[in-house]
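Researcher: Before we compare anything, I want clean individual predictions. No alignment, no superposition, just each chain on its own. First chain goes here; please echo the sequence and then give the structure tokens.
Model: Echoing the first chain and its structure:
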Amino acid sequence: MHVIDIGMTLAAVVTQYPPHVFFGYTISEWLGIVTIIGMLGSFLALVFNRFVVKPITGSVDRLSDEFKDFRKSSHEEHESFHNILDDHEDRIINLERNDAVQDRVLDELTPHQTKENS
């Protein structure tokens, strides 16, 4: 009898909690759930990539190209202004030299007043 009681107990345990059932679902049911969740996740990732990531990536690429063009044109304008500035500096130096020469010539041509004549 002792053996029969153990057998009955084991049979009761096996029928209550079979080894292939988790939280009331069998392994095949769990695999189906995981497959459905994986397919939904893949579909959502595909939709997100198509309608969110690709347009943003395209916009960022166009913005990057515009920044490159702006940088290039800005550099060209900077060089142009730098050349104009160099030209103006040369002109100012020439004017100062001419002014200094004119001052010397005027000083030589005009009589110097001394304190005694004043």
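Researcher: Okay. Second chain, same rules.
Model: Second chain and its structure:
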Amino acid sequence: MITPAASKLIRIALPFAWATSVVVGMIVLIDYSSAPGDRPQSSNAPLSANTTALPLGNNQSTAVMFLHPQCPCSISSVREFGRLISRAQDDTAVRFVIYEPEDESPGWRETELVRMATDLAGGTENVLFDRGGKTARECGVNVSGHLMVFSPDGACRYSGGTTLSRGHEGDNAGANQAFSALTNEDQDFLQCSPVYGCQLFALEAKNAE
């Protein structure tokens, strides 16, 4: 039997426990959203797209984004990519490389993210479905939302993300660096920034356990 004193203590403790759980949950959520999925290094990026299977433009700068079709974080990445292309206002070839597992399940390609990417790229002919992630691995890409910008001669000028955190849109250093790589013809160096998104090969790794 619960005594009046114990009942009073429970009434006092319950709101405190609830508030604590809410605070802890918010801290975990903030920590997750601000933690990059990857920090690209210049040593991991291909020196030239000509050594990969990337679908480049014809004598023009090419911007290639790698996606996992079921990554909710990457919707913001694609939107920022679209804004980036609009700001650049130049003749940039837009391409997407979409990860596809070896044992593709029905409906894998039928997602809002894939539809957004196809529209931004101007059609399915500019979207590469990357079976087994071969092209992504060639380019040292591990996370959805990773953008690479290549000069007309195929040199990589930017490798990184387009958002400040997971699923959040707005002005950020990565998008500004990518913009510079697209619009500054004299840039002869590679810039890198963190990528915020889901791991491309997480499901594959889980199934292998």
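Researcher: What stands out in the second chain?
Model: The first helix runs from residue 4 to 34. Additionally, Residues 13-34, 205-209 have pLDDT under 50 and may be disordered.
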